[in-house]
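Provenance

Sequences were taken from public entries as deposited. Structures were produced by running a predictor on each sequence independently, with no templates supplied. The record for SDR family oxidoreductase from Algoriphagus pacificus is shown for reference.
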Amino acid sequence: MNLNLQDKVILISGGAKGIGGAISLGLIEEGAIPIIIDPSEEEGVKILEKAPLKSLQIPIRLSDPSDSQKAVELAFEKFGRIDGLVNNAGANDSIGLENGSPGAFAESVSKNLFHYYHLAHYALPYLKKSKGAIVNISSKTAVTGQGGTSGYTAAKGAQLSLTREWAVELLKYQIRVNAVIPAEVYTPLYQNWIQTFENPEQKLADITKNIPLGNRMTTPEEIAAMTIFLLSEKASHITGQHLFVDGGYTHLDRSL
Ligand code: NAP
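Predicted structure for SDR family oxidoreductase:
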């Protein structure tokens, strides 16, 4: 299947590592131009080496609206178009009801959610021209809960709502907006999280035995494949959808 992504310019927040890194690499394989918005320069360089002329890293940690504005403007200045946006940067920071505070909750929601809006807002004029696509990377925790992580789940749930809201608002521009929902993907972030348990190997085994399809973790490349398909014209009649890429972990019978 030719996805026709050749020379398409795609912004990816958190595009240097983990899921975002796999999306950037997958886009390079398709001949597209990933714009990696991520402070991790060492990891970004390894990706850029695969396509030095047809990729760009903007090494910033998105926070204020001006960060997103700057990233969008830099991408447009260099490549003259923007065809897609993958909102992906985020981290489960365990700010709960009992173990949190109003200030920490606000900060967690802000860190995980606001730049999704900022990037979409500033990229919109260019996406209107290209009839581009947006993919929001959310999380299974938005629909199942996890416990002890109110800020993160509030942000992840809001990303799913915004996917529907933006899909409706942007119908008139033929801009499609979808969400991909990972559950258990072995990334640097996940590796750090699993190490917080007393027996990380046992914890990992307990989790994977409950993943129905193959009793294994989802790979970052499997999340990237769905994301890249949704960015492409082959997904031309898909919008406002929440796509679970999780080996059946969220919905299938746990006794399987
Ligand atoms: P990861 O391994 O930590 O990679 C994320 C990358 O994004 C890192 O390079 C990180 O840099 C960067 N980043 C974080 N905040 C940023 C910001 N504000 N601006 C720019 N870059 C930023 O994480 P991942 O596991 O691939 O997760 C990617 C997305 O998938 C997140 O939204 C996460 O919630 C979601 N997700 C992941 C899983 C999973 O099992 N891994 C499950 C459900 C949902 P630093 O390392 O320097 O912070």
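The longest helix spans residues 102-130.
The pocket of NAP is lined by residues 13-14, 16-20, 37-40, 61-62, 88-91, 115, 137, 139-140, 182-185, 187-190 (CB under 6 Å).
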